[in-house]
C-alpha cells in the first residue's frame, strides 16, 4: 500500500515536471509520450528524495510530443492514486521556438502570482520610463571603460543588443534567459539596459532632479534604485539543470545530508575572501572550534591573510548540509549561495545586509532564518541560542525551507522575468527601436532546436 498524501504536477514549458509524492520510496515513475507512435527521448533522472517523505521527479525533453505526455506512477506493476496522469496536447522541448501568443494564457498555465512585492517596489520610482533620456544618459554615466552594461531592444519577439563597456561577457546569461523566454511566450516590445556587474548602479533618489533611471540588475541594495531580476546564478542553473549543471535549485533539495538529529551541531562556512567579515568568521572559528567551522577557499582581495588564516578545501553545497547551522555572509554584494542554503534543511544564520536578491522580501528574521549583526558581534551568541533551543531552531529551518521551495520553483523565475519586462514595457513613453551598433541575438539554429510548432504564429510579413 503506497500512501500518496499529496501530489502536484506542474506542466511547465516542456522542461520540467515536478511530482511531489508523499510516501515510500518503492514507487517508479515513467514519463512517456501519450501516443505509442511518437518515439521521443525524455530524460528522467532518479527521483530526488527530500528526506521529509516527499520526492521530486524531474524530466527533460529533447523532442516535442504532439499528442501529449503520460506520467505513470507505479508501485510494483500497479498504478497508484490517479495514475496514469495525462498532459494533453503538444508539449514542447526547451529549444523549440513556439511562443504562446497570449501572455496572459501563458501566465495562467504557469500559475504566476498576480503580484510580486519586490517588482511593485522597484517600479514605484518609475511611473514612466523615458527612453530618450536613457539613451542620452546611460552611456555617459555607466558605459565607460569599466562598464558592464548591455543595451537590449526586443522587437517582434526578436532580441537585439549592443555592449557598453568592456566587461560584458556575462551577457551570455542575460541572452540565454531572454532567448528562452522568447521561445515560450510573446515578449512585449521594449528597450532596456542590463547591468552585468555585481553592484547596483543607480544611486539617485526618486526626488532628485534629474531623477533615477531604471537600470536592470541582478542584485539590489537599500541605497540604490535598480530594478532587479533573479540572479544569473540561479537563472543559469535552472536553465541548464539536467544538462551541464548539477548544483541547481532542485537537485539541492534531494541532497540535504543527514537528518536534523544527525547533523553536526556547529555553524559552517566555506567561501572566498570577498568581504572582510568572512575573514573575521575564520578567526572566530579558530577561537571557537566547538561552535563554528569556517574556512576561506580562495584568496584574492586579502592575499596577505592567507598565511595567517590558511586555506580550506573547496566543498560542494551538498556537503554543507552535514552541519546544522549555515552562516550566510555577503560577498562583494549579496551572497548568491543564499537561495541554496535556504533550500537545505539546516538553519541559516544570515548576516544583516543592505543587499538583496529578488525573493528576500518574502523572508522574515526569526521566522525563516536567524539574523546576525553585520559586524558578526552576536554570531557566537546566536549559535549558542540555536544549540540550546533545538526545537525552535528546527522549526525556523523548516519554515525557511518550505518558503524557499515555493518561491524558487523554476516556473516562478520565468514568471518573475516576464513580469519585470511587462511592467517595464507598460511604462515606456516612446517606441523601442533597434539602435546603431545593435546585433540580433539568434535563437539556436541546429538540429537540437527542431520542432513543429502548432501555435498560430505571426508570419514575418505581419511582424
Ligand atoms: C542517525 O544516524 C544513525 C547512525 O548512522 C542511523 O542509524 C539513524 O537511522 C540516523 N537517524 C536518522 C533519523 O536518520
Ligand atoms: C557591532 O555593531 C553594533 C551595531 O549593530 C554595535 O553596537 C557594536 O558596537 C559593534 N561591535 C563591534 C565589536 O564593533
Ligand atoms: C545533430 O547533429 C550532430 C552533428 O551534425 C549529430 O552528431 C547528432 O547526432 C544530431 N542530433 C540529432 C538529435 O539528430
TrEMBL record:
GO MF, any single term: UDP-xylosyltransferase activity
Family: Belongs to the KDELC family.
GO cellular component terms, semicolon-separated: endomembrane system
Keyword Iron belongs to the record: no
Tree of life domain: Eukaryota
Residue span(s) of domain Glycosyl transferase CAP10: 186-431
Keywords on record: Membrane, Transmembrane, Transmembrane helix
Catalytic reactions on record: L-seryl-[EGF-like domain protein] + UDP-alpha-D-xylose = 3-O-(beta-D-xylosyl)-L-seryl-[EGF-like domain protein] + UDP + H(+); L-seryl-[EGF-like domain protein] + UDP-alpha-D-glucose = 3-O-(beta-D-glucosyl)-L-seryl-[EGF-like domain protein] + UDP + H(+)
Membrane-spanning segments: 6-27
Entries under InterPro entries matching the protein: CAP10, Ig-like_fold, Ig_E-set, O-Glucosyltr/Glycosyltrsf_90
Name under which the protein is recorded: Protein O-glucosyltransferase 3
Pathway as given in its UniProt record: Protein modification; protein glycosylation
Role according to the record: Protein glucosyltransferase that catalyzes the transfer of glucose from UDP-glucose to a serine residue within the consensus sequence peptide C-X-N-T-X-G-S-F-X-C. Can also catalyze the transfer of xylose from UDP-xylose but less efficiently. Specifically targets extracellular EGF repeats of proteins such as NOTCH1, NOTCH3, FBN1, FBN2 and LTBP1. May regulate the transport of NOTCH1 and NOTCH3 to the plasma membrane and thereby the Notch signaling pathway.
Gene designation per UniProt: POGLUT3
Gene3D superfamilies: Immunoglobulins
SMART domains attached to this UniProt entry: CAP10
Amino acid at each position: 500500500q503506497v500512501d500518496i498524501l499529496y501530489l502536484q504536477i506542474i506542466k511547465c514549458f516542456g522542461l520540467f515536471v515536478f511530482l511531489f509524492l508523499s510516501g515510500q520510496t518503492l514507487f517508479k515513475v515513467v514519463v512517456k509520450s501519450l501516443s505509442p507512435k511518437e518515439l521521443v527521448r525524455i530524460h528522467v533522472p532518479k527521483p530526488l528524495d527530500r528526506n521529509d517523505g516527499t520526492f521530486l521527479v524531474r524530466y527533460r525533453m529533447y523532442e516535442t510530443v504532439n499528442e501529449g505526455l503520460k506520467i505513470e506512477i507505479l508501485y510494483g506493476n500497479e498504478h497508484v492514486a490517479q495514475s496514469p496522469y495525462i498532459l494533453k496536447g503538444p508539449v514542447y522541448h526547451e529549444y523549440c521556438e513556439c511562443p504562446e501568443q497570449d501572455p496572459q494564457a501563458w501566465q495562467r498555465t504557469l500559475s504566476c502570482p498576480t503580484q510580486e512585492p519586490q517588482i511593485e517596489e522597484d517600479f514605484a520610482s518609475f511611473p514612466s520610463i523615458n527612453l530618450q533620456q536613457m539613451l542620452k544618459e546611460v552611456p555617459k554615466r555607466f558605459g565607460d571603460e569599466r562598464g558592464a552594461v548591455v543595451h537590449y531592444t526586443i522587437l517582434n519577439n526578436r532580441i537585439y543588443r549592443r555592449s557598453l563597456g568592456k566587461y560584458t561577457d556575462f551577457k551570455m546569461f542575460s541572452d540565454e534567459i531572454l532567448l528562452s523566454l522568447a521561445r515560450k511566450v510573446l515578449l512585449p516590445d521594449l528597450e532596456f539596459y542590463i547591468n552585468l556587474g555585481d553592484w547596483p548602479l543607480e544611486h539617485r533618489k526618486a526626488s532628485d532632479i534629474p531623477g533615477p533611471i531604471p537600470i536592470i540588475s541582478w542584485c539590489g541594495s537599500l541605497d540604490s534604485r535598480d530594478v532587479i531580476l533573479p540572479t544569473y546564478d540561479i537563472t543559469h542553473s535552472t536553465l541548464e539543470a539536467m544538462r551541464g549543471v548539477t548544483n541547481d535549485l532542485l537537485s539541492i533539495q534531494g541532497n540535504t545530508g543527514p537528518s536534523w538529529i544527525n547533523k553536526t551541531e556547529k555553524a559552517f562556512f566555506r567561501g572566498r575572501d570577498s568581504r572582510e567579515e568572512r575573514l573575521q568568521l575564520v578567526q572566530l572559528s579558530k577561537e571557537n572550534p566547538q561552535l563554528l567551522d569556517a574556512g576561506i577557499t580562495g584568496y584574492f582581495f586579502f592575499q596577505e591573510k592567507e598565511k595567517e588564516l590558511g586555506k580550506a578545501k573547496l566543498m560542494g553545497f551538498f556537503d554543507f548540509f552535514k552541519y546544522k547551522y549555515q552562516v550566510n555572509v555577503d560577498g562583494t554584494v549579496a551572497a548568491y549561495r543564499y537561495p541554496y542554503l535556504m533550500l537545505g534543511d539546516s538553519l541559516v544564520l544570515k548576516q544583516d545586509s543592505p543587499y538583496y536578491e529578488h525573493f528576500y522580501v518574502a523572508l522574515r528574521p526569526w521566522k525563516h532564518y536567524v539574523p546576525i549583526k553585520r559586524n558578526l558581534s552576536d554570531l557566537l551568541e546566536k549559535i549558542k541560542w540555536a544549540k540550546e533551543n533545538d526545537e525552535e531552531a528546527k522549526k525556523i529551518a523548516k519554515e525557511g525551507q518550505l518558503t524557499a521551495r515555493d518561491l524558487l520553483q523554476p516556473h516562478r523565475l520565468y514568471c518573475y522575468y516576464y513580469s519585470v519586462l511587462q511592467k517595464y514595457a507598460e511604462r515606456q513613453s516612446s517606441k523601442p527601436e533597434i539602435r546603431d551598433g545593435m546585433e540580433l541575438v539568434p535563437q539556436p539554429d541546429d538540429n537540437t532546436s527542431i520542432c513543429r510548432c502548432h501555435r498560430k504564429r505571426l508570419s514575418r510579413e505581419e511582424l
